[in-house]
Amino acid sequence: MRFRRNVKRRMIAVVIPLLAATLSALVVASPARAEPVSVLSTVLYHIEVTTGDVNNAETDATVRLQLCGALICTAERDLDDPHKNDRQRGATDMYDREWEDVGPVRNAYVYVSCGDAWYLLRIRIKYGSRFDTFVYDNWLPCNRWTGLPVG
Ligand SMILES: [Ca+2]
Ligand SMILES: [Ca+2]
Question: In what order do the strands lie in the sheet with 92-100?
Fold first, then answer.
């Protein structure tokens, strides 16, 4: 009997925090928030974006990124460091972002607004111990999403 009671107590110890975590995730998913969030667990992505080394490669346009795994994608989000001038010619910008865990990244989609053309050389994404490189090496078409080939 004592054994059984201990098992029950242990199950409660596991189930209650799980319920609490689920509920708080649902609350966070409220659509009233500005930044897109979801009930998926998150993971830290280290993202390196390299601008090409050609004339006018740099851009001040808005750049957005979306990462997809085998089944799901992150939300589409702005990629900007408010403390620096991102995307200068020949420079590599690094971003650490805690986004939805989509599993190993299979596809990366980039959006750039019109008005200041951007020459994207490549994007590297570290997920866990794995690095994936997406090489574009060209001018990105503006005002639409572009899927980057795996390099
Ligand atoms: Ca430019
Ligand atoms: Ca910036």
Answer: 92-100, 42-51, 119-127, 130-139
